[in-house]
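User: My instructor asked us to take a sequence, write out its structure as tokens, and then describe one feature of it. I'm not sure where to start. Here is the sequence I was given:
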Amino acid sequence: MNLCNPDIFRANLLAGRVAVVTGGSRGIGRAVCLTLAKTGAQVVVGYHRDSQAAEDTCSAAMQSKTTALAVQVDIADRQDAFRLMERAQEAFGRVDILVNCAGIWPTANAWDMSQGWRSFWRRPPPITSPVRSFTSTAAC
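Assistant: Let's start with the prediction itself. The structure tokens for your sequence are:
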């Protein structure tokens, strides 16, 4: 099976399924949302700050003749993660798929990086399994 072949993601493969994607407004999360929509899944686009990017993702997903909903969420907040899943269940009656794409990326200019910055890269990223477990727990 060639996973790089877009034909593997045929239309209606996930028809009737509901997918929640954290970090779904941009980057990899957006690509996941659009791929899920192309396969017929209804998509909940979890986003943190950029409501316009989330709405753009929903509009693009709806081009695939499916339903999409943008929900603002801070997945580092346990209650917010549960609220995301509750909103999905209220809107669609169920959650079948959870994709955790949310993450952070610190920004700095290369010339501003100091010795202290190097230590940042040696430690685990701030959003790791405990935070992702909030959404995973909420999905159960």
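For the description part of your assignment, you could build on this observation: Residues 78-92 form the longest helix (15 residues). Try explaining in your own words what that tells you about the chain.
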